[in-house]
Design a protein that fits this description.
YunG-like, single chain, globular, 4 helices, 39% helix, 4 strands, 119 residues, YunG
């Protein structure tokens, strides 16, 4: 696990932006790289930082994000024109997986691990 210092969170977010692709979400575009990444990202964040997976309802369906040490982190909020009204409903890995698949999850997780191993 990685400590949730502000520096580590910012570094992780930058790595996510570099790793997101059509391989981590079929909704990915260069104009909106966070689109469709919420489930897979919440799972990978949970792998690296622990904490909880949360969800909130949006017009498009459930939106997944994380709580780490009592702080909300939504690494994919840039996909929205307006930020969601967060309900912070406790979710779990099974529900977050309903928004992605094993191939997308393994791809994103391995790309992030690769970044960290090359640092």
């Amino acid at each position: 696990m990685i400590s949730s210092s502000e520096e580590n969170i910012k570094e992780f977010q930058n790595i996510l932006y570099k790793c997101w692709s059509i391989n981590s979400s079929s909704k990915w575009t260069s104009n909106n790289p966070a689109n469709g990444q919420c489930g897979v990202t919440s799972l990978v964040v949970n792998d690296f930082f622990g904490g909880d997976i949360l969800k909130t309802k949006t017009l498009e369906g459930w939106h997944y994000y994380n709580r780490i040490e009592d702080n909300r982190f939504d690494f994919t909020d840039s996909q929205f024109l307006e930020k969601p009204m967060y309900l912070d409903i406790l979710s779990n890995r099974e529900e977050a997986f309903s928004d992605t698949n094993t191939e997308q999850y393994e791809y994103l997780r391995s790309r992030i691990k690769e970044y960290y191993s090359n640092m």
